[in-house]
Amino acid sequence: MRPRPWTLLVAAAAQALEAVGVLVAAVVSAADTVSGHSYQRSSGIALTVLAFAAAFAVAFVVPGLLRVRLWSRTPALFTQLFVGTTGVYLLDGHHPNVGLPAVLVAIAGFAGICAPASWRALSRLGLQEREELATEAQAATEEPAQPRPAQPKTAAQSKTVAQSKAAAGPKAAKKPPSAAKGRPTGSSSRKASARRR
User: Is there a domain that residue 95 lies in?
Assistant: First the structure.
């Protein structure tokens, strides 16, 4: 997993607060629709369904931000735009008790996502960064190779080695060194040169 900067935690917290706010708005919309305070019953039902879907979508982005997933940056930015615009609309409609917190949370979320450390973490890696991460991962998984200490030979192993050398000794003495390499010996080389003439 990529490293998670603290600014991304701020963005994830803002996203979670916005999800809770949209869920509260969906519950209020559902209560108004059921009690008959909605402008029209059919539009109240549609707005309630959309509000619950929006709350789910906003909440779905939070784990992506916490896990530093590349796909989470764009939906998070759109959420900040949506919540900020709604907050400004509420401030314009003389509802500062709801509009002001919405604008402040949207600004905090936008600043958290657009901070250089968060932006870099949520961007595709360049070639140099990928190589650095691969090197770090390889160094972390590999244990340094340590030379094995030489184990002392047992008496039986020493005896076996000595016997095999003694058995190979007389056979190796019978063959001249040039024959071992596949070269003709002195007498056979004279015979071969006489045949060529």
Answer: yes
Within-domain flag for 41:
yes
Q: How many domains does the chain have?
A: 1
Flag whether the pTM goes above 0.70. no
Under 8 Å between Cβ of 194 and 186: no
Residues 15, 29: Cα–Cα separation, whole Å? 21
Q: What residues make up the domain containing 110?
A: 6-123
pLDDT tens digits, one per residue of 103-123: 999 999 999 999 998 888 888
pLDDT digits (tens, 9 = 90+) for 29-65: 888 888 877 666 777 788 889 999 999 999 999 999 9
